[in-house]
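User: structure tokens for this one?
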Amino acid sequence: MSIDWVNQKRINNTHVHIRIKNEKIYIEEDWTEEGIATELMRLGVPASDIVLAFQPPEVRQYTDFAIA
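Assistant:
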């Protein structure tokens, strides 16, 4: 997250939004360069425990990650 002030107005940019649901990691938003899913797998989290929730449910079946 980056927070800054521009013209006396607070600007808040969320770069990553993750939630845990049903023992899976749901990536709701990811604006990082390498991708948080890549980092999670590098740390040992299996792709089957990661849901790319920013993808529509009907598209998730074509990824290497969990559907839900």
